[in-house]
Amino acid sequence: MSDAKIRVLLADDHSLVRRGFRRMLEDDEAIEVVGEAANGEEAIAMTNALRPAVVVMDVAMPGTNGLTATKTIVAKHPGVAVLMLSMHSEETLVRQALDNGARGYVLKNALDLDLAAAVRRVAAGETVLDPNMNKPEALKGERAQALTPRELEVLQLICSGMSNREIAGKLGLSINTIAVHRANIMNALGVHKTAELVVYAITNGLVTLP
Predict the structure, then answer these.
(1) What DSSP string runs through 123-162?
(2) Cα dihedral angle (6, 7, 13, 16), rounded to 10 degrees?
(3) What is the bridge-based pairing of β-strands 81-86 and 104-107?
(4) What is the side-by-side strand order in the sheet with 54-58?
(5) Rg (CA), the chain
(6) How far apart, in whole angstroms, are the C-alpha atoms of residue 31 and residue 2?
């Protein structure tokens, strides 16, 4: 009874990864992979055309990334469950994904990844979060929680090349307050130089580039 199968669209910019995930999913008789997209734009267009029940979406893709594509898809098709796949376990990324409408977030490189089970669960209306993300590996510093919205705002301005004085002027805060925010951000992320901080923030999707 193919009509009863869970229709899945795979969105990942690496064809080998898509092939591997397709194999994992099609081993499950309850799941049918109806299409493969190589970027966010394709994922949006194919969701419109194929109406899958679940989109398995990579976070980092060229062009329209997975987070943006998820927001667009869920706004247009609220019944579609998006399951995000990522190499990164930052709480900030997870929160962004869920805020954009994703119903699940699992780590691609988890050794115990059971993708078919995750797909079945989000299709049934559950929210699925990878158990390996309870203790975010990315926050290597002393602090257990993710960056605050204000810290993310300061981080964004640091990455755009602004000095503490310029950031203070823009946000209407004292230079000392900005220095404390900068120190707290570096402590939380376990980095010690501005250049490292910028590379880390961009690589892990904590900031958006113009």
Answers:
(1) HTT--EE-GGGSS-TT--SS--S---HHHHHHHHHHHTT-
(2) 70
(3) parallel
(4) 31-37, 6-11, 54-58, 81-86, 104-107, 128-129
(5) 19
(6) 9
Residues 6+ apart with CB under 8 A from 181: 150, 151, 154
Distances (CA, A) of 196 to 26, 41, 159, 168, 186: 41, 31, 10, 22, 9
Question: What are phi and psi for residue 42, nearest 5 degrees?
Answer: -65, -40
Helix (H, G, I), strand (E, B) or coil at 30: coil
Token pair listed for 176: 């000392």
Provide φ and ψ at 86, rounded to 5°. -150, 160
Q: Tokens 């503490």 label which residue?
A: 164
Query: Burial level of 142, CB count in 10 A (0-12/13-18/19+)?
Result: exposed
Per residue in 99-136, pLDDT tens? 899 999 988 877 677 899 999 999 999 888 887 664 44
Task: Please list the alpha-helical segments (H only) found in the chain.
Answer: 15-26, 40-50, 66-76, 91-99, 115-123, 149-159, 164-171, 175-189, 194-203
pLDDT score for 62? 81
Strand partners, 128: 104
Q: Are 85 and 78 in contact (CB under 8 A)?
A: no
Q: Which pTM was predicted? A: 0.64
* Paired tokens of 32: 């049918």
